C-alpha cells in the first residue's frame, strides 16, 4: 500500500519523510494496513510558510465565510460518518455505538456548529468602544495555531475537527494539526472532509494542514517558530511541559491540557443517605471509556467509618463484575500497569485488580490508602493512572481531609457529594473552598465525566491540569479567546476599522461594551 | 536615621535584612537620607504566608468592601498629595507640576476609583450561566499577586497604587509589592496610606504588603512559590525574562511589560501635507518625560524624499533648542549612552546629540539609518534606547518599508500618519496590516505617548513588549482578568454559588451571559 500523503499548502502531497509508521488495532494487536509518513522539518517549514500566508488572508475574511466552512465541515463529517467511525473504532477500540457514532461524533459536529455560530455572532472578541475618545479594541486572530490532539478522543479533541481546531478556526486562524499517531487514518479522513469544505467555502486552502508524525525535536522547533501564533496541546504532562518550555521561551501563547486526577470528596452524610447510588455513579464514571476520560475520577476522599468500608466493598464488587475493556493502545496499558505499581510502592493497597491482561486490557482496579499515608507521599500518590484504576484516600477526620486537599495539585474537576438534609453543610463549608481553588470545575452530587459543550463550561484548571488557569478548552465562545491577541485602535479612521468596531453593529446582535454598557446597538454617530 | 520598616503580615516592622540601600536624587546626584532594608528570604516567606491567609479571606469578601478600600486609598493619596509628590520628585527628578501632581497622581487615583467601580459592577468576571444545565462560571481571584513596579511612573505603575496593584486588588487578590529601588520612599508613603485604608475598610491587614528590595535570586524564588497566584512586572526585558522563566516553569501566570520601540510610520502624503505639525507632535512625544515613557516613539519609518529630509532637519532643530531634562537615575543615563553606542555601531548615524551630560542628563538625540542598513542588522537596530533618543529609518520605497515592518518585534504601540486627502491610502492598505499584528495599539495621526485609562485601551502587545498578547495592563475592567482563574460550578446547589452566579443579579446591573444572551436581568427561577 502506498505511503499516505500529508496535507500541506493546499495539496495532498507526498511527505518529505524521515520514516514511516502504522497504527495498531488495540483490540487485535495487529498493525493496521495504512502506512503514514513521519515528516521531516522540510514538511513543517512548508506548512508554516503556507499557514502564515493563509493567516494574512483569514484576518481579512468575513466571519460568514469562516462559519460557512465550519458548518460545511460538520455536514461532511456526518455524511461520511460510517467510514469515519469504522476507522476510529479500528484505531482506538472504542465502541462504534453508542460511543463513537452516537455520542462523540455528534458532539464534535455540534461543537463545529457552535463555533460557527460564535464566529458569526462575534461577541467572543469582547469588542469595546470608547466613542468619545475614539479608542476601540477587540480580540483578533493570533496567527497559525499548531494543534496536538490526544489519543482518547479521536473526534472531539482531534487536531482536525476537535475543540482546539474549532475554536482556533472560529477565531480566524489557520490550523496545522499534528495527528495523534494512534489514529492517523481517522485524522486523515477528517482532514479530507475539512479540505473539501475549505474549497466549498472559499477559505485559503492552507487554512487546514495535516502532518501525521514528526520527531519530538521538530515539534519543539515548530512550537517556537516565529511564524506560529499559538500552540494547543492535549496529552501527557511530560510532552506538554517540553512544548510549554519551548513556546514560553519565545513568549508564544501555549494552551495545554495535561493531567488530572479529578478528586471526588464524598461526605459522610451523603454515604449514609445514598451510598449504594453513589457506588453506581462512581463505578460508572470510573469505567466510562475504560477510565480514559480526562475527567475520570482518579482520587476519592472518604471519611473513615462503616459506610466508607461499605462503599469500598460496593465499588469492588461492581468493578469485579464488569468486563474490562480494551485500552486505547498497548502504550496506555503499559503505562497504567506502571502507574499502579508506583501507587502501590508509595503505600496504596490494591482493593481489586492491578493485573495487566491479554489484549491491551487491564483488570478494573481500585486502590486505597489512609489519609496519613497519603500525606507522607502526596506527590507520588498523585501519579495519574490513566485508565480503569482509581485510588481511594480514607481520611480519619475533617482535618486530615483538609490536609489532603491542601496537598492536591491543580485539577480539571473536583466533586463534593453531600447529603440533602443539611448534615454535611459544615464539612462542605470547610472543605469546598480548599477544593475550589485547585480545580477548574467544581461539581456537587455529580460525577465529573460529562463535559457539556456549553458557554458556561470550564474544561481547564490550575497547573498542572493546564498551563494557564484563566482559559477553557471546551465551552464556546470562551475557548476562542485563547487563540487571539488584543488589538486596540486609537484614533483610527472609521473606514479603516474592523467591522466589529465600526459605529454600526455589523450584524445587529453582536454584544459590545460601548462606553461602559454592554449593548447590541449601533454607536451613536 | 533608623532603617525604614517593611510592611509584612499587617505590621510595619523591622526587616529581616541582608543589607541596606538609599535612593539617589538624580537631579543632584546625592543620596537621599532614608535608609531602606534589602530583605532576606525570611521576609519573603513571612509575606507569602500572610498573603495566602489574606487571599482566603478576600475570596469571601464582598466587592463593596474591596471597592471601599480602593476608594479610601485614593482619597488618602489625595489628602497627602504634597508630601507624596515631594518624595517622588526627590527620587525621580520628574517635575512636581504638571507631571507628578497634576497628571500622574490624578491618573493614579482615578485608576483606583475605576478599579473600585469595576469590582462593584462585576461584569469584568464574565459571569456565564447555562440555566437549564445549571452550569455556571466566572473569573475569580487567583491568589496573592507579586507586583514589581518600574522606575518611570512612581505613582501610576507603582507596585503600591499603580495599575497592576489596582487590578489585582479589584479582582480580589492580596498584593505583595516589591518597590522599585529608585523610589522607595514614595512607595513607602503610598503603602502607609494603603495600610490605613485597609483598616478603614475592614480588609485583611495583609492584603497589602511591601518589601523594598531583595536579592535577584529571591525574586525568582518568590515568582515560583506555590503560595503565589500570579506575577505582574513592568521593567527591563532582561529582568522580565528571568522572572518569566521562573514562573513559567511552574505554570504560574506572569504578566510582563518589558520593552517597546513604538514604531511610527509617516507616509509621504502626510509629510507633504503637514510636515511641520508632525515635527512638533513627534518632538513633543519624544521628549515627554525625557523619552522615559513605555510608549515613547523610538523608531520612525520615513520614505526617502525631500520632505523626509526636511522632517529630520526640523526635528534636529527642535531637539537642539530643547533643554535635556534629568533622567530617572544614573543607571538610566548610562544605559541610554550605551544603547546609542550600540545603534551607532550597527550603522545608525547621529543626526544630533549622543553625548552624556553632567547631572544625569543626555543630549536630546536623533539617529538615522537607511532601510537597507536597518535590514542588515534588524535585531541590533531594535535595541531600546530608553530615554531621549530616537531612530529614524529612511526607506527607499514601500517594499523596503514593508520589509522593515516585517522585521519588527512585538511592540506596545504603532502609529501611521497619512494625509487627509486620500493620497496615502494605498500605502496605508499595504503597510497597516503588517504593523497591526506586531503592536497592541494601532494609532492614526497621533503620537503614542498618551495612554488613556479607558475600557478600550490596550497597554499590551505581542512579545517581547509583553509576555502574552491577549492581556492589557491599562484599561478597566479588562486588566482585572489577568489576575483571575476561571471557575465553573456544575450542578452546585444555589445557596453555595457565589453571588454573581446566583439567579438573582446581585446588584441589578452586572452584565452576565445567560443562555447565550448578555443580560442584566435575573435568571428566571
Describe this structure in words.
The structure is a homodimer. The first copy, chain A, is an alpha/beta fold and about 525 residues long. In chain A, helix 12 (about 370-375) links the parallel strand 17 (about 365-370) and strand 18. In chain A, the strands form six sheets. In chain A, strands 14-17-18-13-12-19-20 form a seven-stranded mixed sheet, sandwiched between helices. The first copy, chain A, has a five-stranded mixed sheet with strand order 21-6-5-22-23, covered by helices on one side. In chain A, strands 9-8-7-10-11 form a five-stranded parallel sheet, with helices on both faces. The first copy, chain A, has 14 helices and 23 strands. The longest helix of chain A is centred in the N-terminal third of the chain and has 26 residues, at about 95-120. In chain A, helix 3 runs antiparallel to helix 6 (about 185-200). The radius of gyration of chain A is 24 Å and the shape is globular. The model of chain A has no long low-confidence stretch (mean pLDDT about 95). Chains A and B meet through strand 5, strand 6, helix 8, helix 14 and strand 20 of A and strand 5, strand 6, helix 8, helix 14 and strand 20 of B. Strand 20 of chain A pairs parallel with strand 21 (about 485-490) of chain B.
Amino acid at each position: 500500500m502506498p505511503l499516505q500523503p500529508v496535507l500541506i499548502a493546499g495539496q495532498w502531497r507526498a511527505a518529505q519523510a524521515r520514516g514511516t509508521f502504522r497504527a495498531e488495532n488495540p483490540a487485535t494487536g495487529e498493525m493496521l494496513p495504512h502506512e503514514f509518513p513521519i515528516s521531516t522539518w522540510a514538511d513543517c517549514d512548508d506548512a508554516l510558510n503556507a499557514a502564515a500566508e493563509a493567516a494574512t488572508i483569514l484576518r481579512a475574511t468575513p466571519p460568514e465565510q469562516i462559519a460557512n466552512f465550519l458548518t460545511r465541515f460538520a455536514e461532511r463529517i456526518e455524511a461520511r460518518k460510517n467510514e469515519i467511525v469504522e476507522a476510529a473504532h479500528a484505531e482506538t477500540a472504542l465502541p462504534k455505538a453508542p460511543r463513537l457514532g452516537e455520542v462523540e461524533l455528534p458532539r464534535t459536529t455540534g461543537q463545529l456548529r457552535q463555533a460557527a455560530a460564535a464566529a458569526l455572532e462575534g461577541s467572543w472578541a469582547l469588542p469595546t468602544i470608547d466613542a468619545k475618545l475614539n479608542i476601540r479594541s477587540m480580540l483578533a486572530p493570533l496567527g497559525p495555531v499548531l494543534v496536538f490532539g490526544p489519543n482518547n478522543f479521536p473526534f472531539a479533541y482531534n487536531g482536525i475537527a476537535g475543540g482546539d481546531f474549532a475554536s482556533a478556526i472560529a477565531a480566524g486562524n489557520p490550523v496545522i494539526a499534528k495527528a495523534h499517531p494512534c489514529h492517523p487514518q481517522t485524522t486523515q479522513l477528517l482532514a479530507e472532509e475539512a479540505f473539501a469544505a475549505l474549497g466549498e467555502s472559499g477559505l485559503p486552502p492552507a487554512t487546514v494542514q495535516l502532518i501525521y508524525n514528526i520527531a519530538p525535536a521538530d515539534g519543539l522547533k515548530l512550537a517556537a517558530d516565529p511564524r506560529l501564533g499559538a500552540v494547543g496541546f492535549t496529552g501527557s504532562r511530560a510532552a506538554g511541559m517540553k512544548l510549554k518550555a519551548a513556546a514560553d521561551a519565545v513568549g508564544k501563547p501555549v494552551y495545554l491540557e495535561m493531567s488530572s486526577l479529578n478528586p471526588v470528596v464524598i461526605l459522610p452524610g451523603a454515604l449514609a443517605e445514598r451510598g449504594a447510588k453513589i457506588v453506581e455513579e462512581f463505578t460508572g464514571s470510573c469505567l466510562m471509556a475504560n477510565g480514559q476520560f480526562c475527567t475520570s475520577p482518579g482520587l476519592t476522599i472518604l471519611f473513615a467509618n462503616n459506610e466508607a468500608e461499605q462503599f469500598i466493598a460496593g465499588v469492588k464488587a461492581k468493578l469485579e463484575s464488569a468486563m474490562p475493556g480494551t485500552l486505547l493502545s498497548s502504550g496506555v496499558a503499559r503505562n497504567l500497569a506502571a502507574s499502579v505499581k508506583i501507587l502501590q510502592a508509595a503505600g496504596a493497597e490494591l482493593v481489586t485488580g492491578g493485573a495487566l491482561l491479554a489484549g491491551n486490557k487491564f483488570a478494573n482496579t481500585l486502590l486505597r490508602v489512609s489519609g496519613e499515608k497519603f500525606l507522607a507521599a502526596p506527590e507520588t500518590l498523585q501519579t495519574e493512572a490513566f485508565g480503569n484504576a482509581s485510588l481511594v484516600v480514607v481520611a480519619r477526620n475533617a482535618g486530615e481531609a483538609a490536609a489532603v486537599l491542601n496537598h492536591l495539585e491543580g485539577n480539571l474537576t473536583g466533586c463534593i457529594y453531600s447529603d440533602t438534609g443539611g448534615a454535611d453543610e459544615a464539612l462542605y463549608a470547610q472543605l469546598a473552598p480548599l477544593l475550589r481553588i485547585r480545580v477548574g470545575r467544581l461539581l456537587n452530587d455529580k460525577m465529573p465525566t460529562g463535559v457539556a459543550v456549553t458557554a458556561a463550561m470550564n474544561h481547564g484548571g490550575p497547573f498542572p491540569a493546564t498551563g494557564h488557569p484563566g482559559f477553557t478548552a471546551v465551552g464556546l465562545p470562551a475557548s476562542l479567546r485563547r487563540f487571539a491577541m488584543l488589538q486596540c485602535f486609537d484614533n483610527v479612521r472609521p473606514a479603516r476599522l474592523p467591522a466589529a468596531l465600526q459605529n454600526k453593529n455589523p450584524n445587529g446582535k453582536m454584544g459590545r461594551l460601548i462606553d461602559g454598557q454592554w449593548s447590541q446597538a449601533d454607536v451613536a454617530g
